[in-house]
Structure formats: structure tokens, C-alpha cells
Design brief:
The chain is elongated. It has no helices and 31 strands. By secondary structure, the protein is mostly beta strands.
Length: 387
């Protein structure tokens, strides 16, 4: 049995945004802060097909209505479309779920306050020694990631496993330390193959656990997703539910012409590098050979202007890391900087085809964006550290 590491979060890091004016603020034509609210210009807006969730400080969740920005401690969140294949993920007594002979029927009696502030957590408990587990098999191996919230009960350990039951083959096992109180968000990633079954156990090592009679822990809103990276939860009942792509948009009114001096500066964090496609950080929607900055699957940072592009070395961008991007042009040549350091050579301006209708943030990926500034001036290498 191979254990594949996952990410376990006991809290979400907080951030602060400096309100100190820079020497260049007179040249800011649009500034959108870390909550999506415009300091100058127009607020960011988002198009979403249905309600979603956002994370707050600590391991907390809040449901967000359709077309409402998801402002989180890491910035404004934009996510790709994905499907949660787990059914009845908020009702673990439904017949879609199965339990071993040594596992008690889940109950919400005595639930700690859950991540949404209610008492909707489920108790997963052994009623005999060894091999106590609870789970769901939806029958077709389509899942490549997942997320589960777990909380201490009376045991110091629990495990979360994913299987391809056609084998059956375990494609992931995560042992989670729940020796301290409080919720832990467990992101399930790095599957050795797509999975179709989720197994929860009040002991280490999945179905072959050594849980004692009476051992238990609490679980909330388990999900298995089609995407390679774990996303925000999706609530399901009778059928799998698909969340559509977010479209995160800013006003194009303050984006200067391609052959004039301007700068786009923003802070971003990618949730995983793209697989076979590119992550768009920002781009001028409506232009076909457009102004944009993207990240390739190998971590290359690439900016474009018309038909010309410039690229950094591979591995420049890594997942789950915050960066400050500066894309700047003097009207003839353009440059890209990451955390104040130039990446790649010099690009030559070329006229984009088509007409820009909006600035969009995030494409083919899950991303946090914050502190967006657009300037009507060019930044030198020395100045780019302060954009």
C-alpha cells in the first residue's frame, strides 16, 4: 500500500495590504484591492452559474450567492469547472454510503461547530476492533482530487483513502493526525490513477486500519472532483453536481492602447500548475493575438503583445506560492517582472488583432488575484519593485 502525501490545512494564512502611497500613484488609472473592490475605476465582477463557497480565516466556509465575488484571505478566487462525484455529501446516512461490519452508522449527535458555523458534521466511529471504515463507490473512475474536513473525536488519527474499485486498486491513502482539537482541511491530490470510491476510517492505513472499538472522528462535506487539483466544495444530493467556470472580469476602460506606455501589476497565486493547457493570469478579452501573461505546464512565465511573446526559464512559477507580477511597456518594447526580478528578455510591441472588451483574470486554472493596479506609465527595472 502506497501512501501519497496530501495537503492538510489547520488554518488559512492571513495577509495585509499596504495602504502606503507609492511614488507612482498619480499614474494609477485603475486600482482594485484584495477584496475585489475598486479604489479607482470599476470593481471586479464574476459570472457564476450557481452558488459557491469561499474560505475565511481559520478553517471556515461561507456559501456565496450566484455572481458574487469570493474574497478570501489569499485574494479573490477564480476556479475552473469541475464535478463532485460523491452523492449526498451532507447526508452520510443516505443509502449511497456504505459501512463495514465494524463501523457504526454515522450520526450528527454531539457534532462540533462545523466549518459553516452549524452542527452538520458526521461522526465516523468503530463499533468493533480493526477494519472499521465507511465510504461510497460511485462506479466510474473519474476523480483526480478531493477535499474533506476532519475534526478530532476521541482518537488521535484517521485516514482517508481513494480507490479505483475496478481492481480494486488504492490510488491514494492519507493518514491524518487529529490529536489536537479543531477542523483540518485535507486536500486529496496526486492520485496514481483516477478513482471512484472514497473511504473514511477512524484509524491509520485505510480499510486495513487498527481502530479500537469506540474510536471516532468527525467529518464534513467530503468531495471527489474531476480536476487534478482540489477546489472549493460542491454540495450534492441525488446526482453528481458540476460547477461551471468562473469568469472574473475587470473594466477595459482604463487599459491604455497597446502602443502607449502602460503597466499591469497584480499579485497572484496558482492552485496547481496547468496540465496540458496554460493558466492565464490576466488577458485582454476580445483580442485574438492579445496582451496577456500566462503560465505554462512547466512553470514558464510567458507574456504576449500582439503576435510577439517573451518567456522565462522553466520552473519560474510553482503552485501555491504568491507572486507579484508586473507587465510593463514603453510603447515600443515590453517586459515582465516577478517579485521585482525581470523574467525573460525584451519583447517587441505588436498590434493585437481584435478589440479588447474586458480584462479577464484566470483562465484554465484556479487562481487567487489581489491588489490589481493599472498605470498609464512605463516602469524601469528599478521601479518595477514598487508597482
Amino acid at each position: 500500500m502506497t501512501e501519497v502525501s496530501s495537503k492538510v490545512y489547520t488554518s488559512v494564512s492571513t495577509y495585509s495590504v499596504s495602504t502606503e502611497a507609492t511614488p507612482f500613484d498619480a499614474n494609477v488609472v485603475e486600482h482594485v484591492d484584495s477584496t475585489g473592490k475598486a479604489v479607482i475605476g470599476t470593481d471586479l465582477s464574476v459570472a457564476q452559474a450557481g452558488s459557491t463557497f469561499r474560505e475565511g480565516t481559520g478553517v471556515s466556509l461561507t456559501e456565496v450567492a450566484t455572481n458574487v465575488l469570493r474574497s478570501e484571505p489569499k485574494g479573490v478566487l477564480r476556479e475552473d469547472s469541475t464535478t463532485n462525484r460523491i452523492l449526498y455529501n451532507e447526508d452520510l446516512t443516505n443509502a449511497a454510503w456504505n459501512l463495514s461490519n465494524n463501523c457504526a452508522t454515522p450520526t450528527q449527535t454531539g457534532s462540533p461547530v462545523d466549518p459553516e458555523g452549524g452542527n452538520g458534521a458526521w461522526k465516523i466511529a468503530a463499533n468493533a476492533a480493526n477494519n472499521a471504515y465507511f465510504g461510497q463507490d460511485y462506479g466510474t473512475a473519474q476523480s483526480n482530487s478531493g477535499v474533506v474536513w476532519v475534526h478530532r473525536g476521541n482518537t488521535d488519527e484517521c485516514s482517508i483513502s481513494v480507490f479505483d474499485n475496478s481492481g480494486p486498486t488504492q490510488v491514494l491513502n492519507v493518514n491524518v493526525d487529529v490529536s489536537t482539537n479543531g477542523w483540518k482541511k485535507v486536500e486529496l491530490e496526486g492520485f496514481s490513477a483516477p478513482g471512484d470510491a472514497l473511504v473514511l476510517s477512524p484509524g491509520y492505513n485505510g480499510v486495513a486500519n487498527s481502530a479500537s472499538d469506540g474510536d471516532y472522528f468527525w467529518v464534513y462535506a467530503p468531495c471527489l472532483f474531476d480536476l487534478d487539483v482540489a477546489t472549493s466544495p460542491i454540495t450534492t444530493t441525488t446526482t453528481a453536481v458540476t460547477r461551471a467556470d468562473d469568469t472574473l472580469t475587470g473594466s477595459v476602460a482604463n487599459l491604455p492602447a497597446w502602443n502607449t506606455a502602460f503597466t499591469v501589476a497584480l499579485t497572484f497565486r496558482l492552485k496547481g500548475l496547468p496540465s496540458g493547457v496554460t493558466n492565464g493570469i490576466w488577458y485582454a478579452s476580445g483580442e485574438t493575438s492579445r496582451r496577456q501573461t500566462i503560465v505554462l505546464a512547466n512553470g514558464t512565465l510567458r507574456s504576449d503583445m500582439g503576435g510577439n511573446n517573451l518567456s522565462s526559464s522553466t520552473g519560474t512559477v510553482v503552485a501555491d506560492t504568491e507572486y507579484r507580477l508586473v507587465y510593463t511597456t514603453d510603447g515600443t518594447n515590453y517586459f515582465q517582472y516577478l517579485d521585482g526580478v525581470q523574467k525573460g528578455a525584451t519583447g517587441t510591441n505588436a498590434a493585437p488583432s481584435g478589440t479588447a472588451t474586458a480584462i479577464e483574470y484566470g483562465l484554465n486554472g484556479n487562481i487567487h488575484i489581489k491588489d490589481v493596479k493599472i498605470y498609464n506609465r512605463y516602469f524601469t527595472a528599478a521601479e518595477a519593485k514598487y508597482a
